[in-house]
Every structure is written in structure tokens, then in C-alpha cells.
């Protein structure tokens, strides 16, 4: 097992905006007809998030990365441990495929809903609607129910709404690699701009070059636990040296 005390580029303590302390979360799974069992998707995850940084999260399929972002976004509460928010009123937005849309509402209505859930006023959201609509580039589908959208179209809407509603923290769950080529380039470029402009971003990705390019620090999750965190090159070396590759997730 790799130490979780690899060299860290730790930013100043006063810039800490959020801390995860020993987070654990289980899903209830059906076992046979009557029995249910607890499956601990997260067992012990701890790290801090600092203002203006881009924190990468890496790990094999099924190790708990999306679950972790849902905890960070406040969509689900952890069963053990705690999330400490150091800035009251912090606005956090999760961008992931299929997350948070109401299927029978249109793209426009969902954009309004997303903004209101972030605490924005309706006028503020409406003032940005033209930008959201132009970036999503969904044509007349923008006013059609979201349950008529393809996966790529949902990604376009989710990214555009969250991008222009400008939360304090953006959580990206594998969305920079989705959509068609044109949208992939456009959204990745837009996010790079945000990252340069000191936005706080948590990026879950399997794309190593993207992590190397965009992240300031990296967290490696394995079997629901923090295996290592800190310097991007060090954590990637540990992850890619074999320990993080090829095997199915441990249950
Ligand atoms: N609603 C659910 N009910 C039961 N188990 C679930 C549920 N959602 C996720 N899991 C399980 O929890 C574990 C963690 O899932 P999660 O989606 O967080 O992993 P991940 O690291 O994001 O995976 P990937 O890289 O494939 O996207 C997996 O084993 C998954 O099967």
C-alpha cells in the first residue's frame, strides 16, 4: 500500500474552504428476496479543498468517485464522518451526465431550477439565459423536455447551466470528455479559462493528460478510501505504477 503522506503542495490554511473528515457512505443492496445488505461505497475519505485550486480525483471504475462528488455537492449525506464547510453560503455545483435534471421540464426550465438550487435569484438566472442557451447550442430542443435529450445533449445543458450560473465550486464528473468533438473542445477550453481565473474545481477524470494539464493537486481513491493525496506527479506515479490498474474494485 502506498503512503498517503506523499509530498503535498499545501496551500495556506486560511484558504481552506471545505474539509472532508473520514467520510463513509453505504448503499443498501438487495440480497435475495427479503434480505438487504450494506455496501460501503466510501469507507474513509479525508482531504481539504482550497480556494482557487483544481483538485483532481483519480481511481479505477467503481471505487467511489461519483459518490464522493455527490457528498461534496450536498446531494447525499455521509453515514460516517463529516463535511466541514469553512465558508458559509458556499455555492457548489455538480456537473455530471444525467445529474439533477427533471425529465418532464424543458432545458430552459431545468436551467432555472439549477440556478435556484444554487441560491441564485430568478432575475439573475434569466439575465444569463441567452448565454446558457448559446453555449449549449441545442436549438429548439432547449424548450423541449429533457427526457427527449441524448446523453450528449444532457451534458451540453448541464455544463452550460452550471458554467454560466458561476458557483463558487464546480464539481466535474467525467464531463470534459463527453459530447461531440466540437462541444468537447469548446467545454474543455471554457473550463480551462475558469481554472486559470482562480475558480475552485474538483475534477474526476480517467484522462491522465487532462489531469496533468489542469490539476494543482490530486487525490487517489481506492476501495472507498484515500490512498494518496498531494502532488499530481507523485500521486499519478503511485497510481500508474500498478496499484491502481487493471483489477476490479474490492468489495
Ligand atoms: N444506488 C446505488 N446502489 C447500490 N450501489 C451503488 C449505487 N450507486 C453506486 N453504487 C456502487 O458504489 C460503488 C461506487 O460507485 P461510484 O459510481 O461512486 O464509483 P466511481 O468511482 O465513480 O466509478 P466510475 O469510475 O465507473 O464512474 C460501486 O461499486 C457502485 O456499484
TrEMBL record:
**Sequence ranges assigned to domain ABC transporter in this UniProt record:** 18-248
Q: Which CDD domains match?
A: ABC_KpsT_Wzt (cd03220)
Looking up Pfam families in the UniProt record yields: ABC_tran
* Alphabetical list of SUPFAM superfamilies matching this protein: P-loop containing nucleoside triphosphate hydrolases (SSF52540)
**A GO molecular function held by the record:** ABC-type transporter activity
Q: Which UniProt keywords apply?
A: ATP-binding, Nucleotide-binding, Transport
One Gene Ontology cellular component annotation held by this UniProt entry: membrane
Domain of life (superkingdom): Bacteria
PANTHER family xrefs: TEICHOIC ACIDS EXPORT ATP-BINDING PROTEIN TAGH
Q: Which family does it belong to?
A: Belongs to the ABC transporter superfamily.
Protein known as: ABC transporter-related protein
Tell me which species this is from: Desulfosudis oleivorans (strain DSM 6200 / JCM 39069 / Hxd3)
Amino acid at each position: 500500500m502506498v503512503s498517503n503522506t506523499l509530498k503535498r503542495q499545501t496551500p495556506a490554511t486560511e484558504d481552506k474552504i471545505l474539509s472532508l473528515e473520514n467520510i463513509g457512505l453505504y448503499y443498501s443492496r438487495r440480497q435475495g428476496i427479503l434480505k438487504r445488505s450494506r455496501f460501503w461505497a466510501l469507507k474513509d475519505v479525508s482531504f481539504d479543498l482550497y480556494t482557487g485550486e483544481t483538485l483532481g480525483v483519480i481511481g479505477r471504475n467503481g471505487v467511489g468517485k461519483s459518490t464522493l462528488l455527490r457528498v461534496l455537492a450536498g446531494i447525499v449525506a455521509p453515514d460516517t464522518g463529516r463535511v466541514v464547510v469553512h465558508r458559509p453560503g458556499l455555492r457548489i455545483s455538480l456537473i455530471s451526465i444525467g445529474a439533477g435534471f427533471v425529465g418532464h421540464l424543458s432545458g430552459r426550465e431545468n436551467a432555472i431550477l439549477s440556478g435556484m438550487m444554487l441560491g441564485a435569484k430568478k432575475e439573475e438566472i434569466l439575465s444569463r439565459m441567452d448565454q446558457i442557451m448559446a453555449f449549449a447550442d441545442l436549438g429548439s430542443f432547449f424548450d423541449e423536455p429533457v427526457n427527449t435529450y441524448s446523453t450528449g445533449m444532457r451534458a451540453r445543458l448541464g455544463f452550460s447551466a452550471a458554467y454560466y450560473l458561476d458557483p463558487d465550486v464546480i464539481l466535474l464528473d467525467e464531463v470534459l470528455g463527453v459530447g461531440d468533438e466540437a462541444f468537447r473542445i469548446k467545454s474543455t477550453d471554457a473550463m480551462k479559462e475558469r481554472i486559470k481565473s482562480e475558480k475552485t474545481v474538483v475534477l474526476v477524470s480517467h484522462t491522465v493528460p487532462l489531469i496533468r494539464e489542469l490539476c494543482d493537486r490530486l487525490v487517489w481513491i481506492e476501495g472507498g478510501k484515500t490512498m494518496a493525496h498531494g502532488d499530481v506527479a507523485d500521486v499519478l506515479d503511485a497510481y500508474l505504477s500498478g496499484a491502481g490498474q487493471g483489477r476490479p474494485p474490492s468489495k
